[in-house]
Write a structure and sequence with these properties.
The chain is α+β, with helices and mostly antiparallel strands. The protein has two domains: 188 residues, Helix Hairpins (Orthogonal Bundle); 132 residues, endopeptidase domain like (from Nostoc punctiforme) (endopeptidase fold (from Nostoc punctiforme)), CATH 3.90.1720.10. Strands 1-6-2-3-4-5 form a six-stranded antiparallel beta sheet. Helix 1 crosses helix 4. The longest helix has 79 residues. The two termini are 23 Å apart.
Length: 341
């Protein structure tokens, strides 16, 4: 789900308001309460955003399985048709043989002896019987193999049909979950925008903060960076400081938290997963005390936020709506884990 979809969700949410059953945003009692309310609602929306992204990935994976199952069913059906055609090709021969046997056709060697008028005629008749017998046996063998192939093909087709039906059912279930998550996200976005709109200009400015903390030295931080390393991904991410946060966006000019991480590492040739929870399984784990610039840091118990470590307890991240991509203190958010990509 990219920025375009998120923008559509946002537009729908703003036009329609929160979905039925969603709690309205209570009016804050003070400016401090208003800012905290904005922060809390933003975290909730970010959780839902990551859940919706995960549901989309799950749906995409199940649709791949469904398409493969449908293709296998199509191939199995073709095999059944071919096998049945082969059975039909030998069926007339088998029918004639069966009818002849039923009517008592005399095709054995004793009959040849009884009806032969001379030794030569006997040899000729016995030779003919041998040829006919061999041909019949060969045709019966072909027919038997064709019948077995048809039975196997039909069994495979039934199994493929069951697999395709189960794949479709699973995809439909995930599709329903995704639509539910999107609906929840739409309501959450509407509440965030409503809370943000209630802030004064001063509070909005304070919430957005500055793009770099005092004393942050980008050039020193990036000295000696290695191409393709986490530090070079950090360098790429730092070029996006000031870009807006948008739910579901992956760049190049607007991002959500995991979208920024994915984009930054893509610039250095690394295909990082889309969601924060998936990113938390990529690369190798790093202890908090061993963090180096370019490591990826994760936050909250549900791993609903992610950033790139920028040294000295700072991180680069796409924070939330109304707050541009920035370098900020890491200790303001509950730390979960870190990975080195």
């Amino acid at each position: 789900m990219g920025g375009t979809l998120a923008a559509g969700v946002l537009a729908t949410a703003l036009c329609a308001g929160s979905p039925a059953g969603a709690d309205p945003v209570a009016l804050p009692g003070s400016a401090t309460d208003a800012v905290q309310q904005m922060i809390d609602l933003s975290h909730q929306s970010e959780q839902l955003n990551q859940q919706a992204l995960a549901a989309q990935d799950d749906l995409d994976a199940k649709l791949v399985v469904q398409r493969a199952a449908d293709a296998k069913l199509g191939a199995s059906t073709d095999m059944v048709n071919l096998a049945r055609d082969e059975v039909r090709r030998y069926q007339p021969i088998i029918d004639r043989t069966a009818i002849a046997a039923y009517q008592g056709a005399r095709t054995n060697r004793l009959f040849a002896v009884l009806v032969s008028d001379s030794p030569q005629q006997l040899l000729d008749q016995m030779s003919t019987l041998d040829v006919l017998s061999a041909q019949t046996a060969e045709q019966l063998d072909h027919y038997s193999k064709a019948t077995d192939a048809a039975t196997a093909a039909e069994s495979a087709a039934r199994a493929a049909a069951d697999t395709a039906r189960m794949a479709a059912q699973k995809a439909d279930a995930v599709r329903g979950d995704l639509e539910h998550k999107r609906s929840e996200l739409g309501g959450a976005i509407a509440q965030v925008v409503q809370a943000w709109s209630a802030l004064s200009t001063k509070d909005k400015s304070a919430l957005a903060g500055s793009p770099f903390p005092s004393g942050f030295d980008r050039d020193t931080l990036l000295q000696g960076l290695v191409p393709g390393s986490g530090t070079s991904a950090l360098a790429a991410g730092l070029t996006r400081v000031g870009d807006p946060y948008v739910w579901g966006a992956t760049g190049p000019q607007q991002f959500d938290c995991s979208g920024l991480v994915q984009w930054a590492f893509k610039q250095v040739g690394k295909n990082v997963p889309r969601t924060s929870s998936q990113q938390a399984t990529y690369g190798t784990p790093v202890a908090k005390k061993d963090l180096q610039p370019g490591d990826v840091v994760f936050f909250y118990s549900d791993i609903s936020h992610v950033g790139i470590y920028a040294g000295n307890g700072l991180m680069l991240h796409a924070s939330t709506f109304g707050v541009p991509v920035a370098v900020a203190p890491m200790d303001s958010t509950p730390f979960h884990s870190a990975r080195r990509f």
